[in-house]
Every structure is written in C-alpha cells, then in structure tokens.
Amino acid sequence: MSTLDTTSATTHRRSALLAPVGVLAVVAGVIGWMLPDRTVGTGAMDGMSMTHYMGLLAVNQPWNLILFMAIPVILAETLAITELVLLFRSDPPTWVRSLSRWAGLIAGPVMVLVLVHLLKNAVVPLTSGGGWRGAADVIAVLTYLLAGLPLIGITLVEVGAIGTDARDARKWHAVFVGVFLVLAHVAMIFGMLDPTVLGWGATHDMPGGGTMPGMNH
C-alpha cells in the first residue's frame, strides 16, 4: 500500500470515530450536569484556610481525588509517555499506539464531565455569590478548568477534527499534552497555597467560624 493510501485509510479511521466520540462527550456532559454536587461533603481539614481547589480534593475521599485528580493526571501522563515513545522510535510497538489512541479518546469526554460539573456547581455559584478566596483561589480553579481544554483537544485530534495529516496531528498531540501539564501544575501550586498569602483575609467569609468543607457555596 502506498503512503498516500495509508494516510487516507488512517484519516478515514479517525473520522469514523467522530460521531461515537461526540455522542460520548454529550453523554459525559449530561452526566456531569446531573451528577449530585461533588464540591461539598465531609472530610475537609477543619480550621485551615485553603483554596476551593484543595477543598474539592479533600472532601468525599477517595472519590473526589480519583475523579478530579487521579483520572485526568493518569490519562495525561499516559499520553505524555507514549508520545515520547512515538516521537523517538521509528517503529514503536503496536500496543503503544493503541494505548495512546485510547487514552486520547477517553480524555476528552472525561474532561467534559468534569468541566460541566464544576462550572455548574462551583464556578457559577462562587462568582455570583462572591465566594472566591482571593487570587490564589481564582488562579487555582480557573487554571485547573483550562487544563481540561487541551485534553479535549487531544480527543479532537484522535477523531480527525484537528490535524490535516498524521504529522500535523502528532504535532498538535504533543502541544496539547505540554499545555495540559503546564496548566495542571500551575493549578496544583496555587491550589496548595494558603489563600491568605495572596491577600485573602484569614477569617473572611469562612463558614462556621473557620471550617471550609468543599466548595461551600
């Protein structure tokens, strides 16, 4: 088979996934909207000032940690590692390509679910109610949400919506992985920071005299 035929077949296979992955993304969005609010619950560290990012991960253990941190990070790290293998080996094992492909296809719908859920239950209520805990809080939450967009972009690459050919798709794949890792680490750094360091009052708007479970909106 010629190179042109191979490229055409690959493009056709990628495009054939557009509809089912699109349906999966819509279903994920609906689930994210309908899912009971995960931003509140038990398990937060009482008496400590923390960003909403840390509050989200601290409540409903271990499920919030798995859904909002472990799954996205595992998918991204899988994509990063397989990307290196694909870039530096001329004939990588078939299972590496398959693993990279499936991780890329799953990442987008997962992040659609997460983004829809957090926009509904955290960002909108916190913004409308003035519940943000200073600059560190805003930076942590918003960069976390922005980090979901590159993972959605990787899924669009996998279904052929981005990238004119295999080389172009590989380039976008690598760019999206890099952008996600940068944004995710910025979110982690500011999310772990005591919000009072960047000016939020130590007892300002702290429900229950200092207890900060979850998002508390």
- Share of helix among residues? over 70%
- Tell me the count of domains: 1
Mean pLDDT: 81
What is the strand content?
A: under 5%
H/E order of the elements? HHHHHHHH
Q: How many extended strands?
A: 0
Question: Can you describe this structure?
Answer:
The protein is mainly alpha-helical. The chain has one domain (3-210). 71% of the residues lie in helices and 0% in strands. The radius of gyration is 20 Å and the shape is globular. The termini are far apart. The model is unreliable at 1-7 and 204-214 (pLDDT under 50).
Write the layout of secondary structure elements.
Blueprint: H1 3-16, H2 18-34, H3 52-58, H4 63-88, H5 94-128, H6 134-158, H7 166-192, H8 207-210
Helix pairs in contact: 2-5, 4-5, 4-7, 5-6, 6-7
Summary?
The protein is 71% helix and 0% strand. The chain is built from 8 helices and no strands.
Q: Key features?
A:
single chain, 217 residues, mainly alpha, 8 helices, 71% helix, 0% strand, disordered N terminus
